[in-house]
Amino acid sequence: MNGCTGLYSFTMLQVMHNRCYVLLVLSAGAGYAIFTALLTLLIQILCPMGYTDTFAGWCTSSMIVSGVVGCFIIGILVDKTKLYSEVMKFAYGLSVVSLCVFSVYCLQPHQEIIIAIASCLFGMFSLPVYPIVQEMAVEIGFPVKEAISAGILNISGCIQSAMLVLLLPLLSQPLSAGKMAHETCTTIGQKGHIVPVDQTVTVMVLSTFATIVVVITILCLHPRYHRLEMEEDINSHICQEN
Q: Is the peptide bond before 143 cis (omega within 30 degrees of 0)?
């Protein structure tokens, strides 16, 4: 038992001393948290501007469905090219751009078309990031076991998601008298309603946080794929022997 504990502790220290892996864990966890927080708070963000819960539901569905399509397309691209980092940064960047567009127009009434398009694009480019970073975590963390590399990544996402979902609503402000004329929050639900509040600061903080994370990721994340390099070395030795 002591031997297993010592080996596990050594493995954890080994992977956490890999700066590239730590950066990937933090940035990927932040991306997961941003997506989760937006889906969780979407109706509270949209209803003060007069958007119905039905429209918010369609936006949520469009994020998920377009995300599945994006995973399929980007997954094939990554599998063919092995350009994990490049494709991840490209998708991550476009997802944040889509989020910024959404953040601007969700704070204005009667912008359903633009919000719906931004929701689709956000889902299409944000959801595929997570499967890519899971594969990158295994590559970067090799020879650490896959379960540990991916597990730490999932823990980071869950912790950051909980923090955002709990902290972001605290930034809301009272809704002005002019905006109260548009709100639909008090008509949602049969047994109660959502208190209409101004989510401007909440949305801006979320998009700013996402922008900072993606800029740091693009500029600072330069991974080495240790497992892929080992497989290439083995294949080259086999070819030379043959």
A: yes
